[in-house]
Amino acid sequence: MPQPIGKPVTAFTLADVNQIFSVYFGTLTFANDLRVMTKAHEIYVDVLSNLKAKATGDWQIYVLYQPLPPSYWRQSASKGGNMLGLERFGEQVLCRKSTL
Question: pLDDT class for 49, splitting at 50, 70, 90?
């Protein structure tokens, strides 16, 4: 039987057992509009300043804006549909993903 080359990778070590780790993950889909993006950024800056003032410990926040062009849902319609309901949009939308 082949032997592993290195140690197996684990999500935590025994020293971490008494610690609590939480991950918040959220998405939001909206129109590809500069006004909406500007407001989303204003909200992000406000949330970030509140987190910096109140949060303790080691934490990170990641935000990603992913364009979703109409070809995504047009192709899915011919293959049985789109479970996200994106076909109701007539133009490109953006998906905002944030992880804390």
Answer: very high
